[in-house]
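Session log. Operator J.P. requested a structure for one protein chain; no other inputs attached. Running the standard single-chain path with C-alpha cell output.
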Amino acid sequence: MNRTYLCIDLKTFYASVECVERGLNPFTTPLVVADPTRGNGTICLAVSPRMKELGVHNRCRIFEIPSTIKYIKAMPRMNLYIKYSANIYAIYLKYIAKEDIHVYSIDEAFMDVTKYLKMYNMTAEELAKKIMKDIYDTYGITATAGIGTNLYLCKVALDITAKHVASHIGVLDEEKYKETLWHHTPLTDFWQIGRGIVKRLDRMGIRDMEGITKTDPKLLYREFGINAEFLIDHAWGKEPTTIAQIKAYKSQNKSISSGQVLFEDYTWEKARLVVKEMVELACLDLTDKHLVASDISLSIGYSKDLHKPTGGSLHLTNITNSYEYFLPYFLTIFDNTTILNTPIRRINIGFGNVKDEIYEQYDLFTDPTKIKKDEKLQKTLVEIKAKYGKNSVLRGMNLLEGATTPKRNKLVGGHNGD
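Structure written below.
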C-alpha cells in the first residue's frame, strides 16, 4: 500500500514564541533567544527570521553577532515553549489520531495521513495547509511542511524543498527526489548526514547522493558498517520504517544518562563535587521512575579539548538505585582516570542494564538492610521535592562553592525554564 507522510516544523520556534508573547512579528523583529547570564560565548538557541535575513544563523554565539545589529535578547523560557508545543500537538489531534503521529522534537512531528486524505476528501497539500493555518490562527506560529511517500522523503521535503517554494510545503516521491536532489549539495542538508560522514564520503570520491548509488555497496559497508544500509536506502529515496513500527518498537536494553557543560573551567576538586551531585540526582530519577540498574559509566571532558575525554565503566553485582551504593564506584572511576591540573568543562554519567525495580537484587556480600534504608530515604526525598519543589531539600554539598544542583534544578532541558 502506498503511504503518504506529512512532517510539520514550527519555524524558528523559540524565537517565534518570544515574538508572539511580545505582540511582535518574527519576520520583521530582530530577536535572539539566549541566556545573557552565560556570557557572550553562550549559544543562541534560536534567532528570528529577521535575524537570518541579516546574516545571523541559528546556534551562533552572542559574540558572533555583528555589533551593528540592534536586536532583542530573550531569556530562554523552556516551560513556556513546552506549553506552546503541547497546545499545538492538540491541534494535530483535531485532524490525526495519536496512533498516526510521531513527535520528533519539541517543534517537529511526523504524521501518517494516508487514510485521512480520502476521509477529508483532500490532497496532502490541502490538509497540510489547513493544519498550518490552524496553528497560525490559534497561536501566531508559522509552520512549514514536507510531504513524502515515506518518512525520509517527507523529512527531506521539509528540510530542503520547502525552503524554495512560496507555500513552504515541499513534496517528494522517489522519482522527484532523484530528479531534483540527487545532485544537491551540501550533503549535510540531508537528514542524518553530518560533517563527519561527508568527509568520509569525500575521501571515497563521493560528492552527492547519486554518487552513493553508483558506489560498490561492499566499499560502503567496509567504510560505514551497518550504517551503509541507511546511506544506500536514503540515496535511492527509500525508507522502509513506518510510524506504526516506531511506536511498536521496544528496546531490549535500557539505559539513562545525564550530562552538563559547566559554566566555567572547573578544577579536579570542584568537578568531583559535581559528579557526586549528578549521581544523587540520577539516583533520585531512578527512584522516581521505579527503576534499578547495575552498570555505570563516567566521562570527563576537558576545556578547549586540552586532552581527550577520560572516564570508564563498571558492571556491578548489585541491581539497585541506591545513591550510597553507587557513589563510591563513580568516585573510584573519577579518581583513577581524571587528569589533575587540567581544567574540566564537561561531565557525563550513565546507568546501564536499567530494569523495573521488581528486579532489584543483591550479592551475598551486601547488607540489604543498609541499602533499603537508603532507598527509603530517596523515596521520601522524591515525594517532598514533587510536592514542594526540587530545591526544597538539599544536601550540604549542594551549598558548597562550585555546586550546580540548585541552579540545575531550575533548568528545563539544560536551559532556563521560567
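Operator note: The chain has four domains: 5-11+82-178, 13-78, 187-246, 256-413.
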